[in-house]
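Work Package 3 (structural annotation) set out to generate three-dimensional models for the target panel prioritized at the project kickoff. During this period the team completed the workflow that converts sequence records into discrete structure tokens, so that structures can be stored uniformly alongside our sequence database. As a representative example, we reproduce one entry of 184 residues exactly as it appears in the project archive.
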Amino acid sequence: MASLPRADYDPRRIFLISCPSLPFFKHRRAVGVYAAGALFAIAHALFFDACALSAHAKPDTPTDTVPVHVDFVDWLPGIFTTLGMLIINLIDKERLLSQGSYGGEPNIIWRARLFLFIGFALMAGGLAGSVSLLVLKYIVPEYETRFQYYGFANVSQNVCLMLAAVTLWLAQHASSEYEYNLQL
């Protein structure tokens, strides 16, 4: 005897257990945007804290020197990740999904996807750069943990920026309380 599919089963679904949507929570978009902004602020606050600690670092004895400081090289991963986040979230999502020509110009979808790739490449390069800086500049020379914090703050900044980009991307796709979907 063959088993019959459940009445509420949709064969296009990937998972059998559906995640409940939150219809009672009508401010999803605003919460997502604020959460992305909070992650963005936390990311840069972590790195600026490391920069301030580096600028005011004192050696253990007056005859010693501070072995490592935050340089311009440490700023580059955060700059690349921030640029990638801006590029990704400035792209109109409808241009990525539309088939055919958009507004009379057939290459607009290809250009939007190219800029999306560039944005993701900048973000991935920023994260890879921060991890390589952590390992090569702070962990391999075996500095004290107070100096290794500079590298960990850099990696944390880039991870928070990437999470902020994903959160903002998802929040832009969430339906707003002012948006109506009328279909016939």
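The chain has a mean pLDDT of 83.
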